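Q: GST N-terminal domain-containing protein, please. Structure only.
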Amino acid sequence: MPQPKYTVIGTPFSTFTRTITLALHYKSIPHTQVPVFPHSPGADAAHPFGIIPTLLIQSHSDADAGDGDAHAENAHTIKLRETQAIIRYIDRIAHEPTLHFHPAPAQPEDADADAGMIEEKMWEYVSFVASYGMSYLVSPRFAFRRPHFLPSFLPSLPSHPTGFPTIEHGLVKPRLKHLASGLSPSAITPLLTPNLPALANFLDITAQCLPSPPSHPTPPFLFAPHPTYADFHLFPILADLRPTPEWAALLAHPLGPRLERWMESMDALECVRRTREGTVSAGVGLEVAGGKAAAGGA
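A: Structure for GST N-terminal domain-containing protein:
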């Protein structure tokens, strides 16, 4: 029976979409990608709220044409929306290589380490990242609907953000908006400084969530010796943050050195290299008059 044909609806610029394409590439699932922005006609046709990503699952079946000899191929397409639903489907059709976290049995010397570190703690962290770390507001009034979306990508941020930071909403996308409006990178940096405490808060929470076995080396990835869905959720937003001056604030945090080593582990993955094109991490949106905006440059 022919394998389904998979199509990802969503621009590489979207961190949620990159989470999906990272998983598809990592599990060697062939697919194509239609690079549309939220609330564009293509996104509206695929998702009832016009957001991305959507996974189109096109299955083929031979239907009897009625003469006993000829057959016609009919295609039936399922639209699977929402990142969490899509990754559950990907996991069901391709168990390996695993993207799950299976904590090793605790050793006596680790009695005080990672108490309560169960498999679901990885999913808890995924929810933290998706809800607070990478979320950006999606509203019909945003310029996603326009061909040149960056100048009015986001509304003004609150003066005193509360709760977990939204890295994309609080740092990355506002910088792109200001660059598109003509401000120099050095002029933008002080405008975003009030949002840096929210980044530190998010990193504090991350430090509390990650395994930290005292008697074993820190794993190369967030939860395990191999990538998990936690890695594929966090990496797209930190990869977008890395080419900006605000990356220095992350490196200065106590968790910074561990995250820098983790980013190196992620950079070595083939799926990361294959999903980089079209992202902020590849320079999209960072162009200014005369060339790309260097981190901290004038």
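A: Brief note, in case it's useful. The first strand starts at residue 5 and ends at 9.
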